[in-house]
Each structure stands twice: as structure tokens, then as C-alpha cells.
Design brief:
Layout (H helix, E strand, L loop, with lengths): L1 E6 L13 E6 L2 E5 L5 H5 L10 E3 L5 H4 L2 H9 L10 E5 L3 H9 L12 E5 L3 E5 L2 E7 L7 E7 L2 E5 L8 H6 L4 E5 L16 H11 L4 E4 L7 H11 L4 E3 L5 E3 L1
Parallel strand pairs: 3-4, 4-5, 5-6, 10-11, 11-12, 12-13
Antiparallel strand pairs: 1-2, 1-14, 2-3, 7-8, 8-9, 9-10
Helix pairs in contact: 6-7
Length: about 250
């Protein structure tokens, strides 16, 4: 598998990064995990507009899905050959309605489904192209999912947005790479069931015995060096901050 970080800023784009979006590739298949604010523009550095094969939306907060509205424009109003064929979009219940409302002026209530084949996420296992996806609900104020992507005996786990929860134990166990949110600063913010801090991300990585920890979803108002320090204090394995354009081969 090849993982490319398209965007990794939390809550809103920073001067250096769009919001959450991660491109996973194997055997010529391209799976995008989330498409937050600003991600569509950056995605075109790594993938053609019509070269995605499937999209996974962890939840329906804008910093994880709102650029789907812009992507609808690119697919639906394509002048060369008409609307692009519908691709699978895996998301929580109500994804189609949420995106249609956000766009506000689609030709009809079903226009998005002409270019997106919406499929409802639920805990369990599904096959998406060459990938096996293990999905579980995580601890966030809205319906939200983490995912373990497996291929060729390797595993990548993406936490999505979550506070501490048992679901991460199963999703991250023995993963080669753990892409884990670390939005909060230990000792500064403490809102249960919302986000992790760097220390908690490191502790989860240690419990799950992952191969590499990559911290993501750090908002522009948070000092990432503090979260990195806290994670490294809790986890002895390779630990780093996500950055746009970073590529990992698993």
C-alpha cells in the first residue's frame, strides 16, 4: 500500500495544509479517506480528478467532508463527455442528504447520487477494491468511524476523529502504521468523547503495538511540537507529525 497525506489540519485549514484527506493506493486502485476543506485542490497534485475509485468519509463534520461539494461540481458538470460515472462513497447514515443540503442548489435532490454511489457505513468488514476495510464506531459527538485498511498482509489504521475508546484497540492492534488524531494538548483541553491529545495517541499506539505512529488533525491553534513530545514520551516506536505530501509505503 501507498499512503499519501493530502491534508492533515484539524478543524479548519492552516496556512500550510488543507483539512483531513488521505490517499491510499494499491494494485492501481485509489481510495480516499475523507475530503475536508481545501483537500480537492491539493488532491490534484497526486491524483487526477476522475481517477479516484472509492471514497470513505469517517464522519460528516465539514473538516472531513465538505470538499465533496466541490467534487460534485467536478464530476457532475464535466464538459468533456458529460457527468462522470458514479463511484462508491462510504459514509454515515444521511451522508447524501447532508452533502445535498450543504451544496444548497443541486439540480435535484438526487443529483449527487448520479455521480456518487452512496453506501451506509456500519461496524464490520467490507471489501473495497483490493482492500479489506475493518470499520468500527469511535467516540465523537456525531456518528463517526475509524477504519483499518488491510492489503497484502499489511495494515494501516486511521482513527478518524475520536476521544478515547475501546474500538481503537481492535482497529489499531499490530497495525504497521497508525494515523491517529491528536487535536488536544495534554493538560490544556479535556473534553471527554471529543478528541485525543498527543499523550493519549502515544498511549494508544503503545497498547496496540503499532509499527509507526503518525499524528494528524492538529488544529492551527495547537503547537504540534508539544503533542509530538507527549506522544514520544508514551510510545517508544517511530513517531512523527503528518504533513501534506508525505508518502508512506507499507
Amino acid at each position: 500500500m501507498k499512503l499519501t497525506v493530502v491534508g492533515c489540519s484539524g478543524s479548519f485549514p492552516s496556512a500550510d495544509s488543507p483539512c483531513s484527506s488521505y490517499l491510499v493506493e494499491a494494485d492501481g486502485f485509489r481510495l480516499l479517506l475523507d475530503m475536508g476543506n481545501g483537500a480537492l485542490g491539493e488532491l490534484q497534485r497526486y491524483c487526477g480528478l476522475y481517477d479516484l475509485d472509492a471514497i470513505f468519509l469517517s464522519h460528516l463534520h465539514a473538516d472531513h467532508c465538505i470538499d465533496m461539494c466541490a467534487y460534485f461540481v467536478a464530476r457532475y458538470y464535466r464538459f468533456d463527455g458529460g457527468p462522470a460515472a458514479a463511484i462508491p462513497v462510504y459514509g454515515p447514515e444521511g451522508t447524501e442528504q447532508r452533502l445535498t443540503t450543504a451544496y444548497a442548489d443541486t439540480p435535484s435532490e438526487k443529483s449527487m447520487s448520479e455521480v456518487f454511489d452512496f453506501r451506509v457505513l456500519q461496524p464490520g468488514t467490507l471489501e473495497v477494491g483490493p482492500f479489506t476495510l475493518r470499520v468500527d464506531q469511535v467516540n465523537h459527538p456525531v456518528e463517526a468511524y475509524g477504519v483499518r485498511v488491510e492489503h497484502g498482509g499489511r495494515a494501516l489504521t486511521y482513527s478518524g476523529d475520536t476521544g478515547e475508546c475501546a474500538a481503537l484497540d481492535g482497529l489499531a492492534k499490530g497495525a504497521d502504521l497508525f494515523l491517529c488524531e491528536a487535536s488536544f494538548t495534554d493538560g490544556k483541553e479535556d473534553v471527554p468523547g471529543l478528541h485525543l491529545n498527543g499523550r493519549q495517541a502515544g498511549e494508544q499506539a503503545r497498547r496496540s503495538e503499532v509499527g509507526r505512529l503518525v499524528l494528524t488533525h492538529i488544529p492551527p491553534w495547537t503547537d504540534p511540537s508539544v503533542n509530538l513530545r507527549d506522544a514520544e514520551a508514551a510510545f517508544a516506536g517511530p513517531t512523527e507529525l503528518a504533513r501534506p505530501g508525505a508518502v508512506y509505503h507499507l
